[in-house]
Amino acid sequence: MIVSFIQTCLKLREASRYRGEGVEDFVLGLLAPNVDARIFEIVSYSILKYFYHDQAVYFGFQLDELEKSPLILYKTGRTNANDGGIDFVMKPLGRFFQVTETLDVRKYFLDIEKIERYPITFVIKSADSIEELAKNLREGAERQYSIKAIVDKYMTCIEEVVNIPVLQERFRVGVAQGHLGAIMDEIIRQSKVEFNYEEPNEDDVDEE
Prior knowledge:
Blueprint: H1 2-16, H2 21-29, H3 37-52, E1 56-59, E2 67-70, E3 72-75, E4 88-91, E5 95-100, H4 105-114, E6 120-124, H5 130-144, H6 148-155, E7 158-162, H7 164-176, H8 180-194, H9 202-207
Parallel strand pairs: 5-6, 6-7
Antiparallel strand pairs: 1-2, 3-4, 4-5
Helix pairs in contact: 1-2, 1-8, 3-7, 3-8, 5-6
């Protein structure tokens, strides 16, 4: 299944250099609640990387000496590694992103606790609206903690919620900006690393 997925990506990458409609539909199809969690994380990262990459912030100690710094999103390790780490981190803002498919509030609060309640963005494999997701998280928090101040403290640590419709929209923005090929390249690159995939060389193909 994984080999077939990567080979399909490779073919679609070539197709994306000439026409993009079929490739767009393929990527959008990977943004679904029933998609393999590892693939969803890889596709989410690839989309968000190119959504942010042409945005910039300005830093400096003097108003007349500000330096432009582009936003760069890094993937920090393997998917579903159970290593207690954070999935993506953004430089230079230091934003943390965690990809999840659960609505168990205890998992969210565990992620918040392990980074000492530092603000975090959750990328959720759900088609539910952001308002509905936030409502469910708060209600789950209120069931677990009876003290409103504790609930509020945890909820304010959630910097942003990114759901499937948001990812779809950000993908379309990237396509409109001409990044479809780059997004496909990133999906392929990350998939090869994640699934330890090596392309067969020409000699191997001839022997078959």
